[in-house]
Each structure stands twice: as structure tokens, then as C-alpha cells.
Amino acid sequence: MSRTIAIIGLVILLIGAIIGFVGAVSPVSAVAQKPVTIYNNVLTIDPNDYQSHNVVLTKGQTINVTFYLDNQ
Predict the structure, then answer these.
(1) For residues 63 and 57, is the Cβ–Cβ distance under 8 A?
(2) What is the pLDDT of residues 21-67, one digit of tens each?
(3) Alpha carbon distance, N-terminus to C-terminus of the chain
(4) Are 46 and 52 within 8 A, CB to CB?
(5) pTM tops 0.85, yes or no
(6) Where exactly are the structural domains of the chain?
(7) What is the distance between the alpha carbons of residues 37 and 45, in angstroms, rounded to a whole number?
(8) What DSSP character marks residue 29?
(9) Given phi > 0 = left and psi -120 to 50 = alpha, else beta, which region is 60?
(10) From which domain of life does this come (predicted)?
């Protein structure tokens, strides 16, 4: 009887470990990726030019920011 309970416990533990592994490998947020364009003009910034780092936006003007986040 106790052996059967131990086997059932191990099976439940194994199922929980599989569900946890699948959830860690494929998060839900990875499914909802959608690129959005908020500003059409390309703005280049020269890293060697200090003045180009201080870009002033007018009221209501938006910029397009592209970044990538890797889950490692």
C-alpha cells in the first residue's frame, strides 16, 4: 500500500516537473510579439558626436525605439 502511494507521488512530481520545464522554456510572453512603428523617419546618432545625443523632440513628436530582449 505504501509503495503504491510512493509511486503515485513520484508520478505527480514528474508531471509537475515536466509542466514547470515547459513553462520555463516557452513563456507566454514570447507568443505575443508584435512590431509597432510609431515614427517613420530614421534618426542616426553618431556615438562620437556629443551634440547628436541631445535630440530635442517637439510637442507630440514620437520616436521609434527598437530593442531586443533575449531570455537567457
Answers:
(1) yes
(2) 877 777 665 556 666 665 555 666 666 665 555 667 778 877 776 76
(3) 44
(4) yes
(5) no
(6) 2-53
(7) 19
(8) G
(9) left
(10) Archaea
